[in-house]
Amino acid sequence: MQPLALTLGEPAGIGPDLALAVWHRRVELNVPPFYVAADPQFLGRRAVSLGLNVPLSVVNPEAAVAAFRTALPVVALDVAASAEPGRPDRSSAPAALASIRRAVADVMRGAAAAVVTNPVAKNVLYKSGFAEPGHTEFLAKLVQEATGKVLRPVMLLWSPELAVVPVTIHLPLREIFKELTTELIVETGRIVARDLRTRFQLARPRLAIAGLNPHAGEDGALGEEDRAIVAPAVAQLASEGIEAHGPMPADSMFHEAARATYDVALCMYHDQALIPIKTLAFDHAVNATLGLPFVRTSPDHGTAFDIAGTGRADPASLVAALRLAARLAGAESPALAPAT
User: How many Å apart are CA 138 and CA 143, to the nearest integer?
Assistant: First the structure.
């Protein structure tokens, strides 16, 4: 089997803490084998500061699975990290981006089963000249650099309780009305339906399409967008054989009985999607990127600078991200036994 490629994330955040803690509790948590693309000296220092006995093994990806039982495999990067917990420095952005690049390169060449990304601090990346809105768009750029193919990645937030997709992502509310189009909703729905079939093995995915305005526009009384933009998209998806329903009033589509009628909710903007899933599954929701030629998942939380280096970070979301990545990539492994 192939390992999962785990990125370092923001060095000053909780990503390094989580990687070390999850390996330290690997038997208890029953996680699939992974390696961290990082500066091994940095990880060693963080392990010591956390009081964790985590031996590191600097390996190539191909040797990571064999090493995983007795040491945390690290694929060493030439970019050093020096940030202290809670205090990003000049090394933060280069170290975080180098880790992502290495993980993507490994999975693209078949040396890793999937990419799992620890959280980054967007404001730190932006100050370094980073031009992409976030992880999702950067991953698509890396694929384009490697293959020449232009992709439109889709953000899926998944949990056993609810799965949601924001059609528009990191936009100010005032910009949504300019960016949201029938074509964008249709393209998103196609990608979601395809990946739910091929990755999640759902033979006929059910898509619930949220309305943009309160009460899905109340037949035009509360805005024309739902009649003019959303409803035609639903009709187009249905005409293509995709089980899509809507526009549905967003205030009544996330209770338990409603959730049982669909597999994923397509929401028109960021908070419409993320508020319900973070309410229902804050500590174990997973961010998965659809539309890529490989599996990518991530914990659905941020860098948590305030608790970095304290050992208090909850690993539940990273564990869920590792398990989901292994499941979607077909890299699930039997339960780990303690090393002898």
Answer: 9
Residues 145 and 267 in one domain: no
Can you tell me which residue has the tokens 């998103």? 188
141 and 7 belong to one structural domain? yes
Bridging pattern class, strands 243-248 and 206-210: parallel
Most confident stretch, 62-66, 123-127, 279-283, 300-304: 62-66
* Whether residue 287 sits in one domain with residue 299: no
Q: Residues 207, 213, 215, CA angle at the centre, nearest 5°?
A: 80
How far is the C-alpha of 338 from the C-alpha of 340, rounded, in Å?
Answer: 6
Q: Are 117 and 103 spatial neighbours (Cβ–Cβ below 8 Å)?
A: yes
Residue 123 sits in the same domain as residue 191: no
On average, the pLDDT of the chain sits at 93
- Angle, vertex CA 306, rays to CA 302 and CA 311, nearest 5: 90
49: how many CB neighbours lie within 10 A of its CB?
15
pLDDT digit string, tens, across residues 98-157: 999 999 999 999 999 999 999 999 999 999 999 887 888 899 999 999 999 888 899 999
